[in-house]
Design brief:
With 374 residues, the protein is α+β, with helices and mostly antiparallel strands. Helix content is 26%, strand content 30%.
């Protein structure tokens, strides 16, 4: 069939050509933005990301604020609200600090120690049988900082080269958790690791850190990343030890579909309206890090009622009875166009966003053996 290039066809052909050129240009731009990828580890998982990612950590001012949850954020103060570093208690990790900042941290740690000792002494005087009056201190070896146990609470705060570390755990009278043994391991075994490295040795990865502990140690490690070249893109991976429903907990709450729906409708609410882009299936069932997972894709209109954004989520239901560690996993990749626009950067287009998100999801692997079910 001959094609006659009429005036209308010329216009149509010109428009199509322009769209193709723009599409190619977009792909090339993104390819140049992410020329290389690198691996990092979260809990017992490994993930690959574009090599310009920034990792959210606890800001120094809240390292010793034991009355509140830690404020995990990026360097510019943008909150990373879903990040959590829990291993039998809450761990806090600072960014690299200078000598003055490290000295200030240790001074504040010692002030907190004195405050705790005075409060315990007061409790002891008022009621000798009160557990809160009992204080014991753990040996720190060559570490600088404090490590003590009061009543049912353990607090550790020390420096590890140029980082500040704290760990806070609250148990109860019926707890079988051996706090002194864990604290001893924490003080002696905690290691620094370069971010964007995957240790060969086993253990639990946190930003800047590796804690060599047994596979049976419970954990909930969630790390948030943001791309420097595209600050509209935030990535979060959580590795959470699988558990069974408690006596008064509903089993359906533990399913991947429930957790996926709950995330978009209850946890993440930074939007005016939200639309599921998987209109017919609602969710995709995909393999993820050796487990079965639920994948969802959404379109959002932000609270300004104008800005369009996108979100990608993968969730698994772990198996606490698996022969090999099979945790609850959650990965999200979310675009917040405002973070790019205010910096004069064009947000990642929809098609490329979901392509990038799926690449990241496909990269997530268990650092140990592939999880398998009984």
């Amino acid at each position: 069939m001959n094609f006659k290039l009429t005036h209308n066809n010329r216009k149509r052909f010109s428009c199509i050509g322009m769209l193709l050129l723009l599409s190619v240009a977009t792909v090339k731009t993104l390819a140049s933005d992410f020329p290389e990828w690198q691996q990092d580890c979260v809990g017992r998982m490994a993930i690959s990301l574009p090599n310009d990612a920034e990792i959210a950590v606890v800001q120094t001012r809240s390292m010793l604020d034991i009355s509140n949850e830690s404020r995990i954020s990026f360097q510019d103060g943008l909150p990373a609200s879903y990040s959590n570093f829990l291993i039998r208690g809450e761990m806090r990790i600072s960014a690299p600090l200078n000598a003055r900042e490290l000295a200030t941290f240790l001074t504040e740690a010692n002030k907190l120690r004195e405050k705790i000792l005075k409060a315990a002494q007061k409790d002891k005087e008022q009621d000798p049988s009160d557990q809160e009056g009992n204080v014991s201190e753990y040996p720190l070896g060559d570490r600088q900082g404090i490590a003590l146990h009061r009543g049912y609470t353990s607090l550790v705060a020390f420096t590890l080269k140029n980082h500040a570390i704290t760990w806070l755990s609250v148990s109860n009278a019926n707890s079988k958790f051996d706090a002194p043994r864990f604290v001893a391991s924490l003080i002696s075994d905690l290691q620094l690791r370069p971010n964007f490295s995957v240790p060969v040795s086993s253990g639990i990865c946190l930003p800047h850190l590796l804690l060599p502990v047994s596979q049976s140690q419970t954990r909930r490690i969630g790390t948030t990343y943001r791309l420097k070249s595209h600050p509209d893109i935030t990535i979060f991976l959580e590795d959470h030890t699988a558990r069974k429903p408690g006596k008064y907990e509903r089993p359906e709450v533990f399913t991947a579909i429930y957790k996926s729906n709950y995330f978009w409708t209850q946890r993440y609410q930074d939007y005016d309206s939200i639309e599921n882009l998987l209109k017919f299936r609602r969710h995709n069932n995909i393999p993820f890090a050796g487990q079965r997972a639920v994948e969802s894709k959404v379109r959002m209109i932000r609270t300004d009622k104008i800005t369009e954004d996108f979100g990608y989520l993968v969730v698994t239901q772990g198996n606490p009875d698996a022969k090999v560690d099979a945790p609850d996993l959650m990965l999200y990749v979310i675009r917040d166009a405002r973070q790019a626009i205010k910096r004069g950067i064009k947000p990642v287009p929809k098609k490329e966003f979901f392509k990038l998100a799926r690449q990241i999801a496909d990269s997530v692997k268990h650092r140990g053996a592939t999880p398998s079910e009984k």
